[in-house]
Structures are given as structure tokens and as C-alpha cells.
Amino acid sequence: MRVGCGEWGFREMPLERHFEICRQFGFHWLEFGIGGGKPGRLPSPMTDSAAAEIRRLAATYGLETPFCCLENDFTLADEASHRQMLDRTLDEMRWAVRCGATHVRLFAGFTPLSEISDAIWQRLISAFVRCDGLASELGLRIAIETHGMITPASDGTARHVHTVTTQRDAIRRLLEELPSRIGFNYDPGNLKPLSEGDGRLCLDLLDPKINYCHLKDWRRDGEGWVACAIGDDDLDYAPLLTQMSFDGVYLIEYEPLHDPLEGIQRSLDYLRHLGLRLDLGDSLPD
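-> C-alpha cells emitted (286 positions)
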């Protein structure tokens, strides 16, 4: 099982620290992000110097950066805002390739599913058609993340609400209407708070389309949820990993900011506890 390092838990760290941590663990594959206004992400709009810097760091630390996360929302209600969002996303896809990416993580959007009108849905599909056309030209693979609308609460937890990528009927419709080349970033941790007891976590629908994967969990805390490492709570990855056809790099995405190294280590320990032989790319499988 090939395993790489996700970037979201590093979002408040300088970019070079991401590479140092990956080297420390023996990872060879590192995810990076563009936009979102975080210190650990490349800027939006992008610059030649930012692209040169991540290529320099990759060469210096001997890592690959094939996975890029963009911050987009194609379910905006305002049509003009939607057009601006699409233009920015297309531009950042070009930059992602210049930074070494082969796969780009996009979102469908964060408008609650209950508020998706026919017009919003059609703009969403049209946007992905445009993105797919450019991705084909660039030799880039698109992965749409399974992600609800997540709202922070005053008690420090998060509330999850269904979007078009978390509810089964909406996912079925996406699979029917999206261009065939577009895949999914399967994140079962994001699906868990909205699963309503469905242990399949939509794997039965998405398995043939998975071309990217985040590994994390969320645990219940009162009325909300708190992100945690795989193995910290009750999401059983053993049957999911056994059933998945995906043979790419699985990315540990540990989200909390206070103990990212410990969270990554616990995640690796959990995968080893499952009896999996891990290939981090920079070290021999164990």
C-alpha cells in the first residue's frame, strides 16, 4: 500500500516545514495546496516565484508533489461569482501542473444540498465539463472530494450538512452527468458524520471512480464532530481498504493543528496494526 502525506494539517506552517516533516517520516509523495489564504499554501493568484519555490523544495528534499488541492466552489448562487470562480480554478489548474501536479483535488461546492436549484446544478456540471477539457490538454486528473458543508460551532466542534458529494442520490446523479474522465477523492472520514448508519460510506457507488484518497476520521463530541486520525475513533478502515479497487497513493490527512506529527504517526501505526505493508516511497516497504 503506497502512502503519502496530505497537507491540510500543515496549513499554518511555512511551506518548507512540510517537506522537512515528510522527509522525517520517509514519505516520498507530498500533497500541496493553492489558495485559501493560509501560510502553508501557495498564494492565489499564483506567481512564477511561488511555482519555482515548490519545485526547488521538491528537488532539495527529493520528494514528488503530484497532488494539488484547490479551493473552489461551483455551487455559488450568484452567476457572476460562479464565472469568476471557474476562471480562477482553470488558471490554478495550469499552475498546479507547473508545480509538479498530476492530480488536482477540486470541490463540487459547499451549498447545502437542500438549496441546490436546477440552475446551480447545471452550472456545476458545466464547470466540470470546462475543467475536464483543460485537464485533458494538461495531462491532469481531476478528483472531486467527498465533502459536506462544515461549519464551526462555538464549542470548538464542527457541524456537517449534506452537499452534492455526500448524499447517495446526489452522488448517483453526479456519476451519471459528469464527464467520464473525472474521478473522486474518496474521503470516508468526511462521509462518516453524514452516513446515518450506512456503513458502506458510498464506496459501493464511488469505487470505480476513485483516483485520489484522503485517510482521516471524525469523532462525535456532543452535538458536533472533531477531526482526528484514523484509528483514533471507530471508523473501521479494514473493510474499506480491502474492498477498494484504488491502487494509487493513499494520503494521510491529519487535520488538527496542535499535534500533526503525532497524528501522522498514529495513522501510520494504525495502518500497520491492520497488517498492511506500507510503501512510503522513500523507504522499503515494511
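Residues 118-138 form the longest helix (21 residues).
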